[in-house]
Amino acid sequence: MHNDDGWLSSRVPAEFKLNTSLLPEVLKAYRSSRGLTQADLANILGIDQSYLSKIESGSRKVFDIELILRVATQLDIDPEELGIARSILEPTAPPSDAALVGRVDGVHESQTAWTNARRRLNRHRGELARASATLYDSEARIGNTPFLAMKQWMPASPLPLFDISLEWSDSVEQIPVTGTEPEAHGVLPLRAPGRRFTRYTTAIKYLSPPALFENRSSYRLLDCNLRDAHPSMRFTLGSYFDKLDISEAVAHELSASPSCQAEPPKANWAELPLRGLIGNPFDLSRRALMPAIETLTIRRSSSGEPTFLLHWRDPQKVATAGGIYGLIPAGEFQPSTIATADRENDFDLWKNIVREYAEEVLGEPERDGSQAEPLDYQAWPFYAHVTAGIHDGTVAAYCLGMGMDALTLTATILTVVVFDSDTFDSLFSGAVDVNPEGVLTAAAGASKVTDGLPFDDITVKRLLSDEPMASPGACILERAWRFRDQLLPKR
Known about the structure:
By secondary structure, the chain is α+β, with helices and mostly antiparallel strands. 33% of the residues lie in helices and 16% in strands.
């Protein structure tokens, strides 16, 4: 949180020429265009509403460079709109020619090392995840996958999705670990001599931007118990980049660590100060944890074996989990709009899953949370059709639990949706082979991409042992195969 003390003005570097009158108007215009209240925007920025009110009214001048850069990053606003020259965020100083140093460009070297570690991370996520899993108690691991979970996160059997109660909290608490601490300096490259990028997401944006990279409001998890007689999850509002500033940073830290240069890579706590600062990964008060939802989609046939959909995530298109296989659909648990009044309409696991089906399988435009107009689900034909299947028994949705990838410490809600073949074929007759995040994969000889892969022992074991599979998807597959008789009861 930022306070209202006057000491902030003393922190302004001489090279920053700020026009602080721009900030109030930019913030007010951003809120107005997206239907946000001051409380909403203060929550996204991690500041007090009273402090934001003073900024917007002009009674509080802001000279805190870190806050202004955070506003630019969190709201995806060009820094120049806030009076900060873009050149400040890019290496512009010439290399040193001091005799003792030689002509070495420290900024270039720092950014090259960062880019190489980032590239290695995206190429070897599977091996690095397995290495990172050794850092944690074996009792926290789920099966043989590099996936971690608390006991209360994993129901003893498939849990009907609609049995889970979602609760909301309006409380805003300061997050102790944000990825801006000194322990994070090892993963924040230089942007100019003597000055590092302030956040990992800023480094991604300028040095290695994927095709999809936008900061959006997301649901931050505060509590979860799926083994209780009344299973529930409690959330508040957060932002997607708050998640990445920790998750991708700790994965990068591991990728760049000396012990992980070996074959196979090994993990050493002594080389991982940021991960060590987080400590217990299950402490949800320590950092911003915004879970994704990943779904195993099974087509149940009355005349043949069940099949499922598989997705290869293109590292050129996505910011996380690139270059590996995952289940589809998968996406962040986020609002479809940013309007506070729409929260009750949109705060729903099933609605989130259906939006991802439309986007990733059917290739429809993403309902990405950038608009203030509420989504009318009941008037949306696809949503009405697939939800009707829930009511007539041709579609069934389950939760297998929630867990955490050992490499990134990101959480994923693990779900399964089973479709009768006629309903599946009707819903997904217009499926696309390629989507904005990657490519759908089918078995050799398949006539169409929705033929998928056989849901059988051979295929499941091969994916879990021989293919680069994202740990959430691997965990879903492993648990779904174990619970196959309950997910696919004989008729």
